TrEMBL record:
Keywords: Signal. Residues 195-207 have a biased composition (Basic and acidic residues). PANTHER family: CANOPY B (PTHR15382:SF8), CTG4A-RELATED (PTHR15382). Belongs to the canopy family. The gene is CNPY3_1. It comes from the Eukaryota. This is Protein canopy 3. Residues 1-19 form the signal peptide. Residues 193-224 are annotated as: Disordered. The keyword Signal applies. The lineage of its organism: Eukaryota, Metazoa, Ecdysozoa, Arthropoda, Crustacea. Residues 35-182 form the DUF3456 domain.
Length: 224
């Protein structure tokens, strides 16, 4: 049983974490992935890796009672699942944050419209100053770096459910099996795939500024 002191410490830690997240959002526009977004993205990545590793191969694992090596279909092997779960969270770093979008499609693997515009300006010889070296423009933002950590925690917390689906009949998709089970608010699961979403483009007649500096440009990479 938790003592009153222990309860207060836990409460303070939770409050501190929430206030820290609110501060980052207010000061820098950093909005970390929600539980729904994490579940959607991670299950999508796992499913895609399973599809790309689909094979009819038979592998030998361990030994049976008679001393013969066991033969197992790779598609249902523990090896395949372990390899994918060990590697999947690295794939989160391939995503980019699209600040112009407000739903879960803000996480997408293609370059954001903002950075695409900035790169085009630089290629045309326009001086663009963001307060950080150009070689760091394409480095993962705060949201993406944290997404990798969120993915690792998600895999750890839900490995049993993922395994149950993997070894089962897979009548539902992995996303449906896991996300509908654990999420209180699964609304983001209905957002259309990010590949089908087009970012907002400048209206006719709008021209980008020729030079961007300091606070008049972007104070932080995370705002792009």
């Amino acid at each position: 049983m938790l003592s009153l002191t222990s309860f207060c410490i836990v409460l303070v830690m939770v409050s501190h974490t929430q206030s820290g997240a609110n501060f980052e959002e207010e000061q820098y526009g950093i909005i970390y992935a929600t539980d729904c977004e994490v579940c959607k993205l991670v299950t999508k990545e796992v499913a895609e890796r399973l599809q790309s590793s689909d094979s009819s191969d038979v592998i030998e694992t361990g030994y049976s009672i008679d001393g013969q090596k066991k033969k197992t279909k790779y598609n249902k092997s523990e090896l395949r699942l372990v390899e994918i779960l060990d590697d999947v969270c690295k794939g989160m770093l391939d995503y980019r944050i699209h600040k112009e979008r407000k739903d879960s499609t803000r996480f997408a693997k293609k370059m954001s419209q903002t950075f695409e515009t900035l790169h085009n300006l630089v290629n045309k010889g326009v001086e663009v100053e963001l307060g950080i070296p150009q070689e760091l423009w394409d480095e993962p933002s705060a949201e993406i770096s944290h997404l990798k950590t969120q993915c690792e925690r998600f895999i750890e917390d839900n490995e049993d459910t993922i395994s149950e689906w993997y070894y089962g009949e897979q009548e539902d998709s992995l996303k449906e099996k896991v996300c509908n089970k654990i999420l209180e608010d699964p609304k983001c699961l209905n957002d259309q795939n990010e590949e089908n979403v087009k970012s907002k483009i400048p209206k006719d007649g709008e021209k980008p500024r020729k030079k961007l500096k300091g606070d008049s440009a972007v104070n932080n990479r995370s705002e792009l």
